[in-house]
Amino acid sequence: MTKTTLQQTIWMGRYTRYVLAGYLRNVAMVVSVLMIIALTIDLWPQIDLITSSATSSNSRGSWNLVRFSVLRLPGLVAPLLPFATFLGVAWAEITHTQAGERMFVWNTGRSPIQCLPAAILLGLILGPLEFTLDAYLGPAAMAVQMRERLGLDGQRLDRTRTNDVHWIATSSALLKAEIAYGPPPVLHNLTVFKLDDQNRLYEIDHARTAHQISDSKIWLLENGSSWVPPPQSSEANAAPSPLLAEDPGHHKMVPFATRSVALDIPPLWLTVLGVEPQYLPISVLRALEPYDQAPLSRGLYRTRIQVLYGETLLPGAMAVLAASLAILLMPYGVEPLPVFGIIMSGYLAHAGTKACLLMGQNGYIPAGIAGWLVPITLLGATYVAFRILGYRVGRPLRASPAEP
Predict the structure, then answer these.
(1) CA atoms within 13 A on the CB side of 86
(2) Which of 2, 184, 198, 247 is deepest in the core (most CB within 10 A)?
């Protein structure tokens, strides 16, 4: 058998196809169970809200519930798919060992490394699926919920509502406004507190409405008034700041019809203000990435982008780790302690992805580390496990001491 034929047999042979089918079947079963649990928890607080939106009969209410459940599925499946992949592969490997199939494989001379192609192929299938769910289908489903105000999140993120007051901090000002999200966004009942380099207040502008002028940083304030403090005395016994003075005349606002002010606020950022990054399509995330810095944010969008890219590798890393741990810790039989250790390893990896996401979005670690630390660590752990236990490519597993 030539080298090329051997490689084709390893990657697409009957054993690889058999194991891959088992992986896919088990992952589908685990995802189904997790989805039933997650969807039940998600629907329970808002089931009355969904069914009450029906206008005619109970059948219409049931249809609304089914439609809403379908819209919720992408956002619920994507965070759980990598962990479900780990559990599905571990389950298949445990069954593989219990049925005695593992011993049969060892007797064929196949090395542990040669047992991993099925897990790698599973990762190549589920990685793009995970990225598509999280980067495209999930945000698209949430956009429908927001547009139709379906469910609690759809109503909370309704872009047609303008009665919420927002406080926004920029590099040189503090804003209080109600936002008509647009696009383009329009600010209502806006108050701008301008600060100097030492964070001292030097101007207050209030306007009924404000909108951006073209694509510049200049915003046009309409129907408002402005306050500027009088010059301060340089003497030691100078009067207190006009804001603290008791003379009401110091607090007079000068009205204006229009006024231009510079506000370092990207309109797109205002349009999606309040919407969690996981609900935004990747095209919007890329557009917001240049503005993803304090004080507007500390890495929300950059971290989300890197996490999405890292998710293309995460299911495969989970699958390879689960298969490797099962091969190395349960080569001849199933024991409770190794099974518990394998499951806990997958759970720690799942929790690690959430921890890295939170730390990246809050600026504690760089976005690239938040997105790629866990997948690379899992692949590194798989390599180290094989090295420590003395397995090499092309070396079959040593025979059991109990065997003659």
Answers:
(1) 24
(2) 184
Give CA–CA dist 227/229, Å, rounded: 7
Regarding whether 93 and 34 lie in a shared domain, the answer is yes
**By C-alpha distance, which of 285, 309, 310 is closest to 299?**
285
Q: Report phi then psi at 135, rounded to 5.
A: -90, -25
Confidence class for position 240, pLDDT limits 50, 70, 90:
very low
Q: Which two tokens stand for residue 268?
A: 């797109």
Domain count for the chain: 2
Per mean pLDDT, which of 41-50, 76-85, 376-385, 390-399 is the most reliable?
Answer: 76-85
Handedness of CA 198, 203, 206, 207 (dihedral sign): negative
Is residue 375 reached through a cis peptide bond, with omega within 30 degrees of 0 on the bond before it?
no
What is the span of the domain harbouring residue 267? 165-234+241-274
Q: Is residue 395 part of a domain?
A: no
Q: Identify the burial level of 10 via C-beta atoms within 10 angstroms of its C-beta, where 0-12 means exposed, 13-18 middle and 19 or more buried.
A: middle
